[in-house]
Amino acid sequence: MKLHLSRATPSDLPELMALEFSAFAGQDLHDAMLGPDTPAMRARATDRALRTMTSDLADCWLKITDIETGKIVCGSNWKIYPSCMPSTTTTTTTCATGPAGMSVDCGEWLEGEERETAQRVVDDFLERRRGYCQEAHVFLNFLFTSPSCQRHGAGSMMVKWGCELADHLFLPVWLEASEYGHKLYSQNGFEDVEAVDTRFGKWVSRYTMMWRPRKVERMEGKGLVRQ
Predict the structure, then answer these.
(1) Going by DSSP bridges, is the β-strand pair 59-66/72-81 parallel, antiparallel, or unpaired?
(2) What is the phi-psi region of residue 162: left when phi exceeds 0, alpha when psi lies from -120 to 50, beta otherwise?
(3) Dist. CA 141–CA 81, nearest whole Å
(4) For the chain, what percent of residues have pLDDT higher than 90?
(5) SS3 at position 52
(6) Handedness of CA 210, 213, 219, 224 (dihedral sign)
(7) Distance of alpha carbon 163 from alpha carbon 112, whole angstroms
(8) What is the pLDDT of residues 142-181, one digit of tens each?
(9) Whether pLDDT at 104 is above 90
């Protein structure tokens, strides 16, 4: 399998959203944020991704394509915050348009108590993210791979891209790892920060907050000097 990594474009988003919903099937946190896997919810997620792709300066979607089939087999969404500034409305630090300013409305597909508890699990997730990301950083927002491409190196290819970018920007990298992705991130230098296992109503939120500390101190000549 020959893999090609490149920037995703707006025309790639429907295919990426279909792959994302398939990859995260049955995970409560994803369902609470984006809804069940239906054509309507995929369309809604595509519209939202398009808005952030075209308006959020920190947003970066990547794709990996199987050259032989032309199909996207892996996608990722990164948030790149090279500098931070004090927030004028909170006691936390806001990294440009970063996690400290992020919010998610669980939307119209839920009602009553179910919607309230879904919002609580999402708010808890985002509050932890805001609490940890208090400095300039690179954030891996989503990473998903087609079952047909697992164990072919696509996930590692994505993670290494982000780590190399962070090294050239002299920044740490943050992410939330599911139990399925934890080994991949550990193998690429990420460290556990907090294992989260919470429940609000029927919604279960289980993941590990991880980070890769800043690895590069400076550049000398043509090479990076690692700490």
Answers:
(1) antiparallel
(2) alpha
(3) 12
(4) 64
(5) helix
(6) negative
(7) 42
(8) 999 998 777 778 999 999 999 999 999 999 999 999 998 9
(9) no
